[in-house]
Amino acid sequence: MRIVLLLSAWLLSLGAVAAPNDVASLDRSTWPEQLSNPTLFDVASRAEILMFARVLLDTDAMDEIALKQYLGLRTVNMAAIDTLRARLWQRLLSNYNFAQRSCDQDASFCYLVENMATLREEAGRFQLDDNSYYIKWAEPSRIFHTQYRDELLRKAALFPQTSSEIERFGDYERNGDDMNDRMFLLTFDSGANVVPDHTPWLTEYLRKSNMSGTFFVLGKDIQTRLADRSVNSLQTLYSGQCVGVQGWEFRSHSHWQDWQDSVRRSVELVKGKLPENYVPLFRPPQGQRRGDAQSFFRNQGLQVALWDIDPQDSNSRLKPEQSAQRALTLMLLWRHGVINFNAKQDAVKTAMPWLITQTAQSGIGWEDCQDAFR
């Protein structure tokens, strides 16, 4: 017990520079290289993977008592936390194996990682010398990954009482885990606020960039738009894009008595008015949904569309450029996945173009929205 408490105290001291509820963001200017080719993307990716592995390793020995104290929670779901940690380690190993394929072109952050044991060993001794070319990145990155690790642990600790994107309830729910290396999907939530709606700007930007995204709309918003605009204008707005539903209203679908009607009404409206754009996907607002809904979604021919890269562009504590830099860091860490922007936040007009520009020569790909979640 004494060892566990000492470890907990040590971890708390490590995180003293940032409160547990701080939102992780990393100033990418601390990284000295542009992602101007696929090899340099891999270098940055290996660095972020190793740093996250290092801070994840710090929590592996923490038991239920230590985690309660560290996370500031009265109860924690240890089964969900253990499942999360195991999944994170597997993803890190897989991603590092992909990232080290270019080690013959640039050996920075390349170590002999052959299995989980050697990954843990390298993570345990991962540290940069003071004269390292990357030293200005090291401490900001450690802080970022500590904060991000704590975000994930806290969500797992509260799952499923507070449902979120941290875990799936079944194979009818999808996130970016199954996507190929270097492939990413842009998605856009409707958000909680009514105005402004940047959908017209976003869809035009994507079309000009020869890209597509999946827009998860509220049935109420579509109904309001159709009250003073034609169906043709709605179809023009979403031309070349995909449209899923987020329910009739932006509210939790985990304890709402009429959640099934919310989903059905939205699907009926969107499918009827946007048949060329509609995709059978439901994005739960804030990731909150019921764990016993599999039969309902299967009967409706729907999949639940989650995400694994959240720019937090709805969070008032982050500036738009911080949201973009957070998203890029997570892209380097996870190497593929579903990015979750908010179409009704001003930040998206800065964050998304910055992200696309920064990765334009990095060798990544943007998934066509019609091909995703199939």
UniProtKB/TrEMBL annotation:
- Keyword line: Hydrolase, Signal
Q: Where is the signal peptide?
A: 1-18
* GO MF annotations in UniProt: hydrolase activity
Enzyme nomenclature, EC number: 3.-.-.-
Which SUPFAM superfamilies does this entry report, sorted A to Z? Glycoside hydrolase/deacetylase
Chain ranges of the NodB homology domain: 178-304
Organism this protein belongs to = Pseudomonas viciae
The protein's name in its UniProt record: Polysaccharide deacetylase family protein
Indicate whether Signal appears among the record's keywords: yes
InterPro entries for this protein: Glyco_hydro/deAcase_b/a-brl, NODB_dom, Polysacc_deacetylase_ArnD
Please name the taxonomic classification of the source.
Bacteria, Pseudomonadati, Pseudomonadota, Gammaproteobacteria, Pseudomonadales
